[in-house]
Design goal:
The protein has about 180 residues and is an alpha+beta fold. It has 3 helices and 8 strands, in the order E-H-E-E-E-E-E-H-E-H-E. It has a single domain, classed as Rossmann fold, CATH 3.40.50. About 20% of the residues lie in helices and about 35% in strands. The strands form 3 sheets. A 4-stranded mixed sheet has the order 1-2-8-7. Strands 3-4 form a two-stranded antiparallel ribbon. Strand 5 and strand 6 form a beta hairpin. It starts with 14 loop residues before the first strand and ends with a strand.
Length: about 180
């Protein structure tokens, strides 16, 4: 197992592309990981990474129902988006304990700039998967984020899932 923030033994300016798939939000030293990606990339090399979207998919956020003009809508309640934080929790399906590091998009961009990267691609990806209510055969699993009480609420959450991006993919070009 290697430390993404210390790629010892890998020559500098060795690769044309570095990919970090769904990992930077789980790495304590994201600054070091991005700097190491820069170190091992050749000039004009590409760094591509995906993360859970820090504006819409974070351990401190939750689904809420809001009412406006006699209509109900599902929305994400966001608290302290700009403040970095560490969340420790248990994955509901496996019981595995994990840590997630919340950083704003601006923070990731700052890390990239400081490591001599220029953002070339920015994609926000919605899940588009249907909402599933917890069933008896799921055992003790509690699907808090997928609960709904009426068919109308289920439809609202499905619509929100198509419009609210849960993932972010960023491509960056090494400029030095």
């Amino acid at each position: 197992m290697r430390d993404a923030a210390d790629l010892y033994g890998i020559k500098s300016k060795y690769f044309d592309v570095v990919i970090a798939n769904m990992s930077l939000m789980d790495i304590a030293d994201a600054v070091g990981a991005i700097q190491e990606a820069s170190r091992v990339l050749r000039g004009n090399g590409h760094f591509i990474f995906s993360i859970t979207h820090p504006a819409f998919c974070d351990f401190r956020q939750q689904w809420v129902i809001i009412k406006e003009n006699a209509k109900k809508y599902f929305a994400r309640a966001v608290s302290k988006y700009l403040s970095s934080a560490v969340g420790r929790y248990t994955l509901w399906a496996s019981g595995i304990k994990t840590t997630q590091y919340h950083r704003s998009i601006e923070t990731y961009f700052e890390y990239l700039r400081n490591a001599n990267f220029l953002v070339s691609e920015f994609r926000e990806i919605a899940t588009k998967k249907p909402v599933r209510k917890a069933e008896k055969e799921d055992g003790d699993v509690k699907l808090h984020r997928s609960r709904y009480t009426t068919f109308a609420e289920k439809r609202m959450k499905e619509f929100a899932g198509k419009e609210i991006p849960f993932f972010l993919v960023i491509g960056a070009l090494k400029i030095k």
